[in-house]
Design brief:
Layout (H helix, E strand, L loop, with lengths): L3 E10 L13 E5 L2 E5 L2 E5 L7 E4 L1 E4 L4 E10 L2 E8 L6 E8 L2 E6 L3 H4 L8 E3 L5 E8 L7 E9 L8 H10 L9 E4 L7 E10 L16 E9 L23 E3 L2 E5 L4 E4 L4 E8 L4 E7 L5 E5 L5 E4 L5 E10 L5 E9 L7 E11 L3 E11 L5 E10 L6 E6 L10 H4 L9 E10 L4 E9 L4
Parallel strand pairs: 11-16, 17-19
Antiparallel strand pairs: 1-27, 2-8, 3-4, 4-5, 6-7, 7-8, 9-10, 9-12, 12-14, 13-15, 15-16, 18-25, 19-20, 20-21, 21-22, 23-24, 24-25, 26-27, 28-29, 28-30, 30-31
Length: 448
Amino acid sequence: MKKLISSIALLGIIAVLAPQVSLGANSNNVNVDSCRNVEDGIMVRRFGNANEYVLKNGVRDAGHGLREYRLSCVTSTQYKVKWVEVSETPNIGEFSAYNQNGVFARNDASYQDTKTYIRPAVVNVPNSVNAFDFSLQTNQTNSANQYAYIWNTSEAQDLNFGPQRVKALLQNATFTTTNQMQHFTVTDYYRGKYVLFVAMVKNNDGVSAIPNMGGEVDDVAALYFYIKPIETSVAPVPTDLKHTIPSCVDTKVFDGTYIVCEGMTLYHSPSKVSMTQHFYSKGSEVTLDLTGADRNQVVLKLGESAKTFATANGQYQMKVSYDNYNIYGGAILTVKSTKVNDVTAPEVSIAAIPRKLKETGWQYEIDVRVQDSQTPLKKVAVYLSEDEPFGIDFLYWNNAMPNFAKSFGEEFKTRTLTFGKQYTVRVEAEDVQGNATVQTLRFTVPLQ
């Protein structure tokens, strides 16, 4: 039965306000003939000229080195300029991966090169590779620069590279002052998965050259790999398993019948469930210790019907039976798996309801509703962005499911939206099985 998971009300009071800055103590007041605030700067007229011109906020060299400037009119004939010193923005020239034969993956299109996030084409890493190295080169040499490497993995080819992922990775990145080649060991955990490597650099001046990150990062670049799994061929099982001498080693298997010695483990490759066998009651029953399943243990009686359980992610139903015992000490087990195909993703709906206010402009109520399908939800994330569909203004993030209800009314009142601008609300919902839904809604704030 479906459950209503969320109803979120977000209130945005839209007003034309002077820009707010917090750039430190460096500031000057400048007299002009006229001054008025406009988007991302001011419009001024001076020296008796009849025409106005725009002075914009931003980073530039006005003869004093790189500074970040913020301007605002304090009267109709005076404006205040505030600034902070900015070091030269570091730029990643190349992000490369190496093996014993040299460079096998390279990306020279960083964020600062393109002003966007470009995920390179996937590079297939053969299953014979056990390790490789990677490093970045910057176009500037600055002793203040700091570097970080971090990565995400997925069993599906859906690892996007964008502002949301970079912001999330930045929270867990560890920066160092030395730019050294990094070593990556390909363990079984990474085989059969896609891996997105992200390199980050910052000059440690406290100002992020990439906007909306919630911390300082000046440039990023990515490499994207698929690490191929090791294919395991399973020899045909002899008919007379009771009298066959078992190998007594941990074994990667598919569906079939196998001899499992005391304390040994079957690793079922499709479902990724591990089953470690223990004899009890002089062989009349077998206990399997499970990992990757919806329970920790299952007890099988000799000759009785198979026991059924599910994988932890709900994607497979498993049946295991204890068919016989081996005279050399092993248990003869039959393993069967069925993939669950009828799971659907969560349902998401979004509505933006405008209300005209007499004095303060427009008020918006953003209503987000999420319903699970057949499995509980794992997370719901809500974002708001201006002019681009994948901005990084977090409005809500929930990992404690199911039921929640949260009002953003008081928290959202200071958020300033601009008349005539277009905004995007993005909702991401994912259930415990990894089924995900992404829904977006774009709306335009009316002109006053």
